[in-house]
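Researcher: Hi, I'm a grad student and pretty new to this. My advisor asked me to get structures for two proteins we've been looking at. I'm not sure of the right format, so I'll just paste the first sequence and hope you can take it from there.
Model: That works fine. Here's the first sequence with its structure tokens right after it:
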Amino acid sequence: MQMNWLNLALFCGLAAGHAAFVVALINRLHALPLPLAILHRSRQLHDLVIVILPALFAWYAGVKGPALFLNDEGWHRLPVALLAYLAVCAVVALAVPPVAIVRRLRKPALQLSNHSRMIDVAAELGYRPVGSGPYRIFTCFPGNEFLKLDVSDKEFEVPQLAPEWDGLSILHLSDLHFTGTIDRPYFERVAEIAESMPVDLVVFTGDLLDREDLVEWLPATLGRLSAPLGCHFVLGNHDSYLTNTAEIRARLEQLGWHDLAGRSQVVEHAGKPLVLCGSEMPWMGTQPDLSSAPPGAFRLLVSHTPDNLTWARRHGINLMLAGHNHGGQVRLPLFGPVYSPSISGARYACGAFWESPTLMYVSRGISGRHPLRLNCPPELTRLILRPAAYSPRIEGAMQVRNDQRVAATTSHGSPQR
């Protein structure tokens, strides 16, 4: 019998749609506050389903049974339920290319400039700071950028920012993930770099520890940082899985950090109030109460996940800083991020987004439970805020961008990454 190449090509397209559909489900499942054991089992099941189901279909429908790979007909002989699922896979497969194109064309919202430099921490230290923690095998992947830190100064035009606050700077750290796989010297070097970047305000957006005993690393890392308007933090879902969450908070507060989880506070800058609030939802606590916030004050939300964007917009948050999604950790050529534990999938994997009245910046984070970074290096970012010259014209769908200014060169004169 002669091979039916058309049916084989259709099968490949449907298998790709199946994989994308399963990934979309697992992304959204991992955005929920489920027990860690369930999330681990679902990820293992996902690995099997993506590979095994297409293989079974290829054998029982492609070669045996209707023998789709060997005949011109046979699709009508498949069960109705299977045909319905294949139709879903076809729709998903057709949607993937345009979604990928839109992601590739999207520029960071309201971004005026970006000056970046890549620091190879392993080269600076003279060795790879890899410990004996779990997932050590990932550190051996060719092209892994887990020890290369993208240090950036990003300027944003921010609606409602007071002219007196022109140049307000915020150091944004996220997702340190102390697991022991990446050893302490890496994080000490990150803290040293952060300490050398003068700012008005420092924020940490969660996922600090995966091992309780590594709370001892805090004085030599986050404990080194300070700023005129203070250092403020929320914890993340990985912190919520530990039993010593209260101790983590206490140790950070002893080091001068302010816990924003489920609360708000007002600090004054250049004679005007700045409302700082934080959220660890949906894993811990409640959303902050803003009922007593000064009317018209600039509002900054520190949130672990970008999934709190809807709440932020509803409560008039002007700037929201988040992490959690790690930029996908692996970004495929052309397609971009794949895995992003969010109810929005990979839409907010990383970068800047304007959804009126909120400008949201999502960090790729400093590290991760799985030390694998392909085309997605960790980041340490200083955000510099500028008043929006034409803020009344900025609407939710506009996402004003300046392509020429965004395509800034790095501080070393190399093209922007």
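Researcher: Oh nice, that was easy. Here's the second one.
Model: And its structure:
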Amino acid sequence: MTTEVLKDVPQGLTRERIEQLARASGEPEWHIQRRTEAFERFLNLPIPSPKQEDWRYTDITTLHLEDYTAVAWSDVPRGSAPTTMPPFLTEQPVVRVFHTAGFGFEAHVPEVLQAQGVQVRDLREVLINSPELLEADLGRLAPIPGDKLTVLHTAAWDSGLYVYIPRNLQIDGVIEIIHWFETPGMHFPHTVIVCEPGSAANIVQSFFSPERVRVFVLGAVEVFCKPNSELRHTVMQRMGRESWFISSIDYEQGRDSRVLSLNVGLGAQLGRTVLQHLMTEPGAEARPLGLFFGDGKQHLDFRTLQDHRVGHTTSDLLYKGVLADEATSVFSGLIRVHPKAQHTDAYQANRNLLLSDEARAYSIPNLEIGANEVRCTHGATVGPIQPDELFYLRSRGIDPEAAEALIVMGFFEVVLREVKPADLRLSIQKLLASKLKGEAPRYFMDLAELDEEVLV
């Protein structure tokens, strides 16, 4: 049996074009070679199919890449830079970054942090002016699992950020980054985050696009957490309903590093993230959290890997999602314990709440254990609101719509209570509540305005 190899590519994207523009911008030869080799692999790989385990419940075989223009690689007019941007999720981020795809980025880093060595730079600028910072690691994590689309990203990434937290610096406050995609077509953002030994940071990345704009974002985030570093990292996906969003998020964790990752999926027609915690040295701890709320005909796909490559490492995953109307979700999680990775402690849970008979949630938790002195468990639930829960609230004079909303928001609370700071938690609560039906969103918006001290 042979698999058809599709040759379609985004408009404006050719090997010659990639090589020409990369060389004209001053990229080093080693990176140009990586791009062109990846592009050749892309041409000879099939589009992902439901016959592959990674894509069993997400069918993109009808995708025609030639329907999209590779914005950064073509001469398509981009219009004017937007004059307004979406609001930040935190009230006063200590570092504010606006990344407008196709128009560059603007970073506001306080002078005191700059003097301490904090860097927020354009990734292309770093590649051109400081290639030694990227040669060993750029793209080292992101190609996993290496299908047609991730290889395309390696070949064509077009914009991005380099965030550097220096040794032993613990940043108070939030570094918040807004990624805004307003030009129709295909975009390839790439983020590299480096947390040096002993550092601590809270980084929030939000991906937005306007409604009724046909955008395809194929992105990657690579995070390198050195020994004894601590990171809170939130990725918020709020793309418009006519957009596609596919991204990898990869964490490499050194000795005694601690990472809490929060993956929030609310927007897009099709949203898919492949998130991996790669624990490479003893003492690494990972706490992957996920929140998603799908409605209409949204399709939200989450694939996670808790990869325990050495012993004495810990991971504890919890993803919770609500689906209404005809929305579909897919959660496929794997705990992998390598041989000799003794004394691993890993847990994985996916909980799904269905608000309609047409909504569908597919949950596939997996274990792959190569060592014997470990504690690894997993669980998954999919089901509707229980009638006795509704009856309890109705018996106390709460109408059906409000009762359902209370149950939904309570369902999310176990994850929300782990989100810091409080204003970020409130913003996420409001966004989740905005997808409720009827008058319920207004009620929870008012509730979210309670004094911050009550919710801490």
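Researcher: Is there anything I should tell my advisor about the second?
Model: You could mention this: The chain has ten helices and 20 strands.
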